[in-house]
Structures are given as structure tokens and as C-alpha cells.
Amino acid sequence: MPELPEVETVRRTLIEGGLVGRRIVRAQVLHPDAVRHPAPQEFAQTLKGRRIAGIGRRGKYLLLALDAGVLVAHLRMTGRLWLSLPEAEELVHTHVVFDLDDGRQLRFRDVRRFGGFHLLQDASDPAAPQGLRELGPEPDALRARDIRDACARHARLAIKGLLLDQRVVAGLGNIYVDEALHRARVHPARACGSLTQREHGRIADALREVLGEALANRGTTFLDFRDGTGEPGAFQEFLRVYQREGLPCRSCGTPIAKTRVAGRGTHYCPKCQKGDGFPSSTARTRTTTRSRPAKTSSGSRRAR
Q1: Who is most buried in 5, 30, 41, 278, counting CB within 10 A?
Q2: What residue spans define the domains of the chain?
Q3: How confident is the model at residue 282, as a pLDDT?
Q4: pLDDT at position 275, please?
Q5: What pLDDT score does 94 carry?
Q6: What is the pLDDT at residue 47?
């Protein structure tokens, strides 16, 4: 699932690609499920002639500011948003195509169909997705005291579950929570109430560090993620624990283990991330000596 570094990379590459300032000549809704608000026909009619004045981001949401209104894009698990020439091959599961006044297209593809668009009057529009309205602070604004206060409110919750809560901190997901907790040397199943003040600080610092490195490498690509020009990220080459079950820890050489925390597959180093204060519901951990190769997927159809 695209997380903060991937969504921010899409934002930056769309800006670099010259999307800001372009007018939408036509919006083609090829699959109505991709438009959450308003109805697809109204969505297409309203967008005709609108100019894209800027591109922002909040958590995992892209915010395309228009000369009137804002277009909210949520990529969710498999969504992709990129600039394309109209003669380029149209990939299967391309659900929305925006024709631009310079002859190019902004295309949205989503294999799993969980992502989509909201066209709003402004960011305070009551039709905005609930997740956007309830977002917590961005990770770069998070400090040790913020983590301390959140942990005090959720003392029995596993720290990974706390960091995955978008109301606590915006933009994090499975990849970067696992990576940050490894750098902070905190076991992901540690109960929040068992963490020390020093650990609060290490977690805050690790989040900023790993997200900064991921942004510098244009995000992480395993299967679907591509930036605003259609290119994959490179941070997967530098991951320390995520999807590295059975491989040696880059810090100490111990095989990376996998368990489930907060209902999510979770990777960690049993030596670097020792801990106590686990919730009683902590799942059984398995450690293996081999990791499974990543699957790849592709598909396309010709544009009509």
C-alpha cells in the first residue's frame, strides 16, 4: 500500500512533470466505483475546464487544488496516478482518465479498486472522506512528547498498533512502522505503557529518519507502486526488516522474524528489538531461514 513517502513522491513528480497550471479538458470515468463524490456524471461535468492550481498532500491523500474546489485522490492499496501521452498503451484497470490542455493525460489505475476520488468545494467540505477529516499530525511534526501522550492514552495497545492509527500520526503503514521500530530498537508488540521516555524519543527520531531516506529513494516498490511519471521507487533495496523474513539483520546478522501485531504481518529482529511489557494477546512468532520471492503482476489493454 502506498504510504507517505510513495504519495509524496507522486506529488513531487506530478509537479515536476508540469501538471500544475494545466486545465482539465475532459474527465473520462471508465469505472464508476473510482468516483466517491459526487456522482460520476456530475464529477466529469464539474471538472471540465477546471485548472489545477497546486498539488498538496495530507497523510496518504493527494490534494489537487483547483481554481474552484479541490480534487482528493486516495491511492489506497494499488492505486496509481501518473502523466501519460494519449497514444501510450492503456493499462488494464485504468478507471479514470483526465485529458489535459497540453495534449497529455493524467491516468488513474487501481487493480483492487479500493482507491478513488472526492471532488469537494474545499478541504472542510462535509463530503470529504472521514479518514481525511480525522488525520493526526504529520510524522515530521511528531515529537517524543506526542508519542508519550498517545502512549499514556493507550497504555495496553501495542506500539505498532498505535503508530498505524492515522488519528495518532498521519501517513504511516506497515512498511515504515516496521522499519522505524527496528531503527528505534523497540519490539513492535511492546505495550505502549511499557515504553520509556528515551524510547519515545528514539521512535520519533527513527520515523523522521526512515521517511527521509525513503523519500530520497522515491519510495518503495514491490508490486504496484509507480511515481507520477510511471517509474518505480528504489527504497526496497535498503529495507532493514520489512519483507526480509529469514534474511540476516543488517545490524547484527540475526535472521529477521515475522509475527502478527495489530492484525498485520510484522517483521523485526529478535536480537535488536528485544523487549518486555508485551500485551497478553501477542501472537506466536515464527522465524525461518528462507524468504519467499516477491510476486509480480502486470496487465494491459490497448486504448480504444
Answers
A1: 5
A2: 4-133, 139-287
A3: 39
A4: 66
A5: 95
A6: 98
CATH top class, domain 139-287? mainly alpha
**DSSP for 273-286, written as a single string:** T------TTPPPPE
**Phi first, then psi: what are they for 219, rounded to 5°?**
85, 180
For strands 300-301 and 90-91, give the pairing. antiparallel
Region at 79 (left for phi over 0; alpha for psi -120 to 50; beta for the rest): beta
Nearest to 106 by CA among 224, 191, 21: 21
Please choose, from the candidates 117, 113, 109, 118, the residue with its C-alpha nearest in 3D space to the C-alpha of residue 80: 109
The distance from CA 150 to its chain's CA centroid, rounded to whole angstroms, is 22
pTM of the full structure: 0.88
293 in catalytic set: no
Mark whether 264 is an active-site residue.
Answer: yes
Residue 160 falls in the annotated catalytic set: no
Residue 129 annotated as catalytic: no
Mean pLDDT of successive 10-residue stretches along the chain, which has 304 residues: 94 98 98 96 98 98 97 94 93 94 97 94 90 95 96 98 97 98 98 98 98 97 89 95 98 97 97 67 40 40 36
Domain covering 4-133 in this structure, CATH number: 3.20.190.10
Q: Which of 148, 264, 270, 271 is catalytic?
A: 264
